[in-house]
Amino acid sequence: MKVISLFTGAGGLDLGFGRQGFDIVWSNEFDSSIWPTLEVNFSNLRLDKRDITKIPTEQIPTADGIIGGPPCQSWSEAGAGRGIDDVRGKLFYDYVRILRAKQPKFFLAESVPGILHTKNKAAFDNIIRLFESVGYSVVSRLVNANDYGVPQDRLRVIIVGYHMKLQKKFNFPAALPYKPNLRDAIWGMPSAQSTKASCKINDAGLTTPNHAFLQGSFSPIYMSRNRVRSWHEPSFTIQAGGRHIPIHPQAPKMRKIGTDKREFIPEYEMKYRRLSVRECAKIQTFPDDFIFQYESIENGYKMVGNAVPVRLAECLASAIAQDLSPSHTIMSLHSVLRNRLLARHSV
Questions:
Q1: β-pairing, 23-28 with 106-111?
Q2: CA nearest neighbour of 195 among 285, 301, 281
Q3: Of the candidates 178, 166, 95, which has an alpha carbon nearest to the alpha carbon of residue 320?
Q4: Cα 68 to Cα 57, 78, 92, 109, distances in angstroms
Q5: CA–CA gap between residue 317 and residue 139 (Å, rounded)
Q6: Is residue 315 annotated as part of the catalytic site, yes or no?
Q7: How does pLDDT run along the chain (347 residues), one tens digit per residue?
Q8: What span, in angstroms and rounded, lies between the C-alpha atoms of 63 and 18?
Q9: According to the model, what pLDDT value does residue 333 have?
Q10: Global confidence as pTM
């Protein structure tokens, strides 16, 4: 089935859907800092670099599906929380505009949990009504990527719509029986290189591409909570800014010394470092041969942190393919992962 990708970012959704046999026939990404990563990692890339609000719908190809996560900073509980009043929040309307014109069989949109906050309820309900008004049976759910083979606690809102002419609704796949952890993702990796945010990093000198971490101070907000997960736990959410990245699991948990105040245990001070961009990418389930292109390490963290985890995208794509492709005879990814994980952890 043919798919167009809106707000493509680093391509986590595209990669997941591509693995399930979907053909990405057109992608749109306006952020020029992301273009080199897309151009290096996707063969047959058909990338439109224009502002989505300026693209006439007749210049967008017809496809079986539309995927994409409109920029979600305005919905974030950690941000200003302007929601639909923010220019970025209004990009949902362009998603609806394109759906109305192209009328694909399905669409999938992804957003942050903040969109479900009480103060955003009216706006979110209106978004769902808009999707329905242009011809779709819509379901939405807050999911944890860790339930779908991603070694990270990452809550995201997934919205899926099937065209009403199909007379069916999307059913979210059941959670997998085993929750992957940091050991599954990054155990045994070689030492990482440190760099400062002000540096223009050249990954050509690294044995492992993108395997550098941000060196620098930690804010009082960062130090107000434990930022260390152990090897047997899933990672904290990989965020889109280097200064908010979790600490590598080689370090012990941070010690509480007061209300909203923690410290690194002094005798283990050298073990406290942020995860590298490559470690974050592995936690986001990008393959090792997917190389992020950037000069500033902050851009590397931004691309990885904003992406949809590849394995989550693949699970969702598999479920959609099972629903909409009568000729789709491959066992669902959910079943494959379930059997693989059960075999690995059976006693």
A1: unpaired
A2: 301
A3: 166
A4: 16, 22, 10, 5
A5: 15
A6: no
A7: 999 999 999 999 999 999 999 999 999 999 999 999 999 999 999 999 999 999 999 999 999 999 998 875 544 444 444 544 545 557 888 999 999 999 999 999 999 998 898 988 888 898 999 999 999 999 999 999 999 999 999 999 999 999 999 999 999 999 999 999 999 999 999 999 999 887 776 565 788 999 999 999 999 999 999 999 999 999 999 999 999 999 999 999 999 999 999 999 999 999 999 999 999 999 999 999 999 999 999 999 999 999 999 999 999 999 999 999 876 444 456 666 666 665 555 54
A8: 14
A9: 60
A10: 0.91
Burial 247-259 (b: 16+ CB within 10 A, else e): bbbebeebeeeee
Closest of 241, 210, 240 to residue 306, by C-alpha: 240
Helices (H) and strands (E) in the chain, counts: 9, 11
Catalytic residue among 72, 199, 280, 315: 72
Stated length of the chain: 347
Query: 141 has which bridge partners?
Result: 158
Element (H, E) at 163: strand 155-163
Helical segments of the chain, H only: 12-19, 35-41, 91-102, 121-133, 182-186, 277-283, 297-306, 310-324, 333-345
Kindly list the distances between the CA atom of residue 258 and the CA atoms of 117, 221, 223, 227, 263, in Å, as whole numbers in the listed order.
29, 13, 11, 16, 10
Q: Which two tokens stand for residue 136?
A: 């779709």
Select from 21, 20, 316, 324 the least CA-distant residue to 168: 324
**How does DSSP assign 35-58, residue by residue?**
HHHHHHH-TT--EE-S-GGG--GG
Instruction: Give first-to-last CA distance, the chain, whole Å.
Output: 40
CA distance 147 to 315: 10
Distance in angstroms (rounded) separating the CA atoms of residues 280 and 299: 13
